[in-house]
């Protein structure tokens, strides 16, 4: 697939790291928020524009609206919004049929990673195929999912992490025993609390809040321990401390 790629990296809470390095410098441009409304940002040859910010609905809609002012109808907008409805967000863009949602479990995006492709209700098959084709060319596994908050991977994993946090908060077992039970009992690659540290407790907490607001189901109600740890800045490996303490290489000690 020969596409003219532009990458819009708009800073926001929970934005995945390293995406620019993943897509590669060749043929790609990085734009800051001040440039997204500039003329020519989406030229007629632009293939896919990646809007990368795991932010709130208002911020996403604002950026989509700005992008749409000078948009080409040929451009596809790949929207990283794993906790929001792509169908709703896309209506802020000039051509909602060109907006495709996607998600992955950062910071693990690399060849072989799973990327979930979530077309909105108005998304054309061609737009969804373009985004899926891009990730396949990068060596990723892909799956099509419906436009629901949390998609599949995050929805299930974050619920498991939340339950593990409740078990720790209630004093049922130590963090090490909880993680060991899940690694040996279910053959997980890492325990849920270790996994939370790797993903980022702030991302897990914000994801659970989004799921709880969307569905109103108590199984997604964030554990108070997660809320307190995020407020204290104990957000995992990136912060040097989460459920575990981490050295400069991110290993628990």
How do the strands and helices of this protein lay out in sequence?
Blueprint: E1 4-8, H1 19-23, E2 30-31, E3 46-52, H2 57-68, E4 76-80, H3 86-89, E5 99-104, E6 114-119, H4 125-137, E7 141-144, H5 153-169, H6 175-186, H7 192-199, H8 201-215, H9 224-231
Would you write up a description of this structure?
- It is built from 9 helices and 7 strands; from the N terminus they run βαββαβαββαβααααα.
- It has 253 residues and is an alpha/beta fold.
- The chain has 2 domains: 4-144, 3-Layer(aba) Sandwich (Rossmann fold); 154-239, N-(1-d-carboxylethyl)-l-norvaline Dehydrogenase, domain 2 (Orthogonal Bundle).
- The protein has a 7-stranded mixed sheet with strand order 2-1-3-4-5-6-7.
- Helix 8 crosses helix 9.
- The longest helix is centred in the middle third of the chain and has 17 residues, at 153-169.
- The N and C termini lie far apart (45 Å).
CATH topology call of the largest domain: Rossmann fold
Order of helices and strands: EHEEHEHEEHEHHHHH
The residue fraction in helices comes out at 25-40%
CATH H-tier superfamily of the largest domain: NAD(P)-binding Rossmann-like Domain
**Count of separate DSSP helical elements:** 9
Strand content: 5-15%
Question: Do you know the CATH architecture of the largest domain?
Answer: 3-Layer(aba) Sandwich
Main sheet attributes: strand count, strand direction, barrel closure? 7 strands, mixed
What is the number of strand segments? Answer: 7
Major β-sheet strand ordering: 2-1-3-4-5-6-7
How much is the radius of gyration in Å?
19 Å
Structural class, please? alpha/beta
């Amino acid at each position: 697939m020969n596409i003219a790629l532009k990458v819009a990296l708009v800073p926001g809470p929970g934005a995945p790291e390293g995406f620019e390095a993943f897509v590669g410098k060749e043929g790609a441009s990085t734009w800051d928020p001040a440039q997204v409304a500039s003329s020519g940002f989406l030229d007629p040859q632009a293939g896919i524009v990646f809007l990368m910010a795991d932010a709130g609905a208002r911020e996403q809609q604002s950026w989509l609206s700005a992008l749409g002012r000078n948009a080409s109808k040929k451009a596809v907008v790949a929207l990283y919004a794993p906790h929001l409805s792509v169908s709703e967000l896309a209506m802020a863009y000039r051509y909602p049929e060109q907006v495709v949602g996607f998600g992955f479990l950062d910071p693990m995006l690399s060849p072989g990673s799973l990327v979930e492709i979530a077309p909105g209700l108005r998304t054309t098959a061609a737009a969804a195929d373009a985004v899926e084709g891009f990730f396949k060319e990068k060596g990723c596994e892909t799956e099509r999912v419906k436009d629901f908050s949390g998609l599949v991977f995050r929805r299930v994993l974050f619920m498991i992490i939340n339950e593990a946090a409740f078990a720790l908060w209630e004093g049922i077992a130590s963090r090490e025993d909880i993680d060991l039970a899940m690694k040996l009992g279910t053959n997980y690659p890492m325990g849920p609390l270790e996994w939370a540290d790797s993903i980022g407790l702030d991302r897990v907490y914000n994801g659970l809040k989004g799921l709880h607001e969307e569905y109103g189901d108590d199984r997604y109600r964030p554990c108070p321990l997660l809320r307190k740890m995020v407020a204290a800045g104990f957000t995992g490996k990136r912060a040097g401390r989460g459920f575990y303490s981490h050295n400069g290489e991110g290993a628990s000690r």
